[in-house]
């Protein structure tokens, strides 16, 4: 398990991370969500050791992070970068060799990975000759080249088409089920929602929420209910403590506290047939919006500056 | 993944990592067309330059065609004096040859002249021809250094130029490479695997090997040029200083490379590189100007041969003219080596501290400060 405790970091006197603490477990995908300038990239760079934290500790399996442990981290930086003019096969081989593979092993590994990511036949092309999406795949291969123990991926899906997303996801899942910690940030909330078991929401340099996805969904956002009835359900509008979001002849979606919702159900049963009654969990984008709106509302004048300087 | 989890590999130690980085630098360069073409052009220039110089300067050795009129018995003597006599029957015939430009002058016997010969030119006094006919005493110079003036200047320029061209060329490669790695953020991936020190060392090692290779190729080209043009003695005189030049070149270039890499690591965009590398550029060009301006000023050359930046050019030059005591090159080499080690340490500090800072150029003070 990768654990961050009270990580703080300031840039020229301005604190951009305040007591960031969270953990990412082995064997599952952990999503890291937050708005622009929330501190995702900074946090990831600190985990990688590319940036030093002002204070706080990071532990891996309860041991403080050492540089040999870090060398088994796979990293995909937010700004993509490999040698533009170098053949992609050679680049990945080179990176594998830097991680300690022998020349032969490295070449085999590079070829295998690139094929796995759908780049068969492009191995002898220079990076700059590939499309953006394909360059992104090469970048993923670069992060995976040394069978990392911990994967830190900054926006791994940005710029990928749905097919490519699926390919990358299946590779990441393999890594996770082999026991790796996989932490990735993303703006694409639908992807995060679909993939992640655990979720961390960060805003304005603070962890706003962290935990299992389902738990977060029940705990945050507004709970809504869907009620299907045999007869007209117009009466629900008049029920105290209920706010109707959507209404059609036999179906109503409403927001209410648990008690009020139960009363609505009782009333519906009294009035006749009930075809369904389902609590609707908020989706991630709603939770995300809730948090970020809060963050924006309590925005201090220098938040903008922070964002610009990120 | 494709293979089962292997035994955890130990990350690459600094030594092998350095070699690997160096290998990439070298193979990338050797495969770049620009590098090969510029080296080929330089080789052609060196060989061609030497051949052309010797061709034009030895033009005078060709026999001068002259027309001879009524010059019995003395024709053989003319042959050995470097003429190509063309006997003409009459004065008119000879004059025609001269006017046609087939001969340079007419030589005829003249009893009125103290030498018994008269030389006639077309529109200028044929003093060159007269000189060739003259009997001259054997000449000798007491202070041979003065006589070596032109050669001295040429050798000084040669060493200076080779050092400057190669150091600037390879230095700029290091600058471009460093900034490219920083700009593309590949440096973040590299540093996840190896230390900044190993990355810097590999970069310096690789580019130094390339630069040295270029210097050796150019030296070989110069030797070939000298051999082809038959200037064997000059070549013999140059061999030892050239070897010393190579010996000095190694620490000298490492010094330059370290400066360029550290300077380049301060910025993250090629456009910003201009200002930060100017100091390093000046230091690389300095030895060339020093030797070109002061090559016959013994005091200035002695000082230059101990200053680390100009020593790689000035010291071999002084050795070429036997102006140095046996221990001087060793002392100068030691000074150079110590400076190089110090600068490399400084450079490693700057490099590791500024490599991961992107955006605005990093100020030297920040790069040198202990913080972070």
Could you explain how this protein is built, in words?
The complex is a heterodimer of chains A (310) and B (372). Chain A is α/β, with parallel strands linked by helices. Among the domains of chain A are: 142 residues, P-loop containing nucleotide triphosphate hydrolases (Rossmann fold); 57 residues, 2-Layer Sandwich (Alpha-Beta Plaits). Chain A contains 11 helices and 14 strands. The two termini of chain A are 28 Å apart. The C terminus of chain A is likely disordered. Chain B folds into 2 domains: 262 residues, no CATH class; 72 residues, D-Maltodextrin-Binding Protein, domain 2. Chain B has 15 helices and 4 strands. In chain B, helix 1 packs across helix 9, helix 7 packs antiparallel against helix 9 and helix 11 packs parallel to helix 13. The longest helix of chain B has 35 residues. The N terminus of chain B is likely disordered. At the A-B interface, helix 3, helix 4 and helix 5 of A face helix 1, helix 7 and helix 8 of B.
Query: What is the overall number of helices of chain B?
Result: 15
Order of secondary-structure elements of chain B:
HHEHEHEEHHHHHHHHHHH
CATH topology (fold) name of the domain at 2-72 and 148-218 in chain A: Rossmann fold
Given helix and strand content, the structural type of chain A is: alpha/beta
| Helical amount of chain B | 55-70%
What is the strand content of chain A? 25-35%
Helix/strand-derived category of chain B reads mainly alpha
Strand order, biggest sheet of chain A?
6-7-8-3-9-10
Main pleated sheet of chain B: 4 strands, mixed
Tell me briefly what this model is.
Chain A is an alpha/beta fold. In chain A, 37% of the residues lie in helices and 28% in strands.
């Amino acid at each position: 398990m990768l654990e961050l405790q009270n990580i703080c970091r300031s840039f020229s006197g301005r604190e951009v991370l305040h007591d960031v603490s969270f953990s990412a477990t082995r064997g599952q995908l952990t999503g890291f969500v937050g708005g622009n300038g929330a501190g995702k990239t900074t946090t990831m760079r600190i985990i990688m050791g590319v940036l030093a934290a002002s204070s706080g500790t990071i532990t891996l399996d309860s041991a403080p992070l050492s540089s040999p442990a870090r060398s088994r981290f796979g990293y995909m930086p937010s700004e993509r970068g490999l040698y533009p003019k170098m053949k992609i096969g050679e680049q990945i081989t080179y990176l594998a060799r830097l991680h300690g593979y022998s020349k032969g092993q490295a070449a085999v590994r590079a070829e295998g990975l690139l094929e796995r990511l759908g780049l068969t036949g492009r191995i002898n092309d220079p990076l700059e000759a590939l499309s953006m999406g394909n360059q992104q795949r090469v970048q993923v291969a670069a992060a995976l080249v040394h069978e990392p123990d911990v994967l830190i991926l900054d926006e791994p899906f940005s710029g990928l088409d749905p097919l490519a997303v699926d390919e990358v996801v299946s590779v990441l899942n393999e890594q996770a089920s082999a026991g790796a910690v996989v932490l990735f940030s993303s703006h694409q909330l639908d992807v995060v929602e679909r993939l992640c078991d655990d979720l961390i929401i960060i805003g304005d340099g603070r962890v706003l929420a962290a935990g299992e996805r389902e738990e977060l969904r029940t705990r945050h956002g507004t709970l809504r209910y869907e009620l299907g009835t045999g007869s007209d359900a117009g009466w629900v509008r008049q029920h105290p403590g209920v706010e109707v979001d959507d209404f059609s002849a036999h179906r109503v979606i409403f927001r209410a506290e648990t008690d009020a919702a139960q009363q609505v159900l009782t009333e519906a049963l009294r009035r006749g047939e009930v075809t369904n009654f389902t609590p609707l969990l908020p989706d991630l984008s709603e939770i995300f919006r809730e948090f970020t709106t809060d963050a924006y509302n309590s925005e201090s004048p220098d938040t903008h500056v922070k964002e610009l300087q990120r | 993944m494709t293979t089962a989890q292997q035994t955890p590999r130990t990350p690459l130690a600094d030594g092998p990592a350095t070699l690997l980085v160096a290998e990439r630098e070298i193979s990338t360069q050797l495969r770049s067309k620009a590098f090969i073409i510029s080296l080929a052009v330089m080789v052609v220039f060196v060989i061609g330059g030497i051949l052309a110089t010797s061709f034009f300067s030895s033009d005078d050795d060709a026999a001068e065609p002259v027309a001879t009129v009524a010059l019995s018995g003395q024709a053989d003597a003319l042959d050995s004096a470097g003429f190509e006599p063309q006997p003409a029957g009459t004065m008119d015939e000879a004059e025609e040859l001269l006017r046609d430009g087939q001969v340079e002058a007419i030589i005829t016997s003249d009893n009125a002249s103290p030498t018994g010969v008269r030389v006639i030119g077309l529109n200028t006094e044929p003093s060159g021809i007269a000189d060739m006919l003259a009997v001259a005493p054997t000449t000798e110079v007491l202070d041979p250094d003065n006589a070596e003036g032109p050669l001295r200047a040429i050798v000084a320029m040669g060493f200076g130029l080779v050092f400057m061209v190669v150091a600037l060329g390879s230095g700029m490669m290091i600058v471009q490479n460093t900034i490219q790695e920083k700009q593309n953020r590949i440096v973040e991936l590299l540093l996840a695997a190896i230390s900044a020190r190993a990355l810097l060392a590999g970069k310096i090692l690789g580019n130094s090997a390339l630069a040295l290779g270029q210097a050796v190729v150019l030296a070989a080209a110069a030797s070939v040029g000298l051999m082809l043009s038959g200037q064997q003695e000059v070549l013999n005189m140059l061999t030892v200083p050239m070897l010393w030049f190579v010996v000095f070149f190694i620490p000298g270039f490492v010094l330059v490379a370290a400066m360029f890499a550290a300077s380049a690591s301060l910025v993250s965009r090629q456009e910003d590189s201009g200002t930060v590398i100017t100091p390093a550029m000046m230091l690389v060009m300095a030895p060339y100007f020093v030797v070109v301006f002061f090559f016959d000023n013994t005091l200035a050359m002695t000082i230059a041969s101990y200053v680390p930046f100009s020593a790689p050019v000035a010291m071999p030059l002084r050795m070429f003219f036997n102006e140095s005591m046996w221990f001087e090159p060793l002392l100068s080499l030691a000074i150079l080596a110590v400076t190089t080690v110090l600068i490399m340490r400084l450079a490693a500090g700057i490099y590791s501290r500024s490599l991961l800072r992107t955006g605005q150029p990093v100020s030297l003070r920040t790069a040198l400060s202990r913080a972070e």
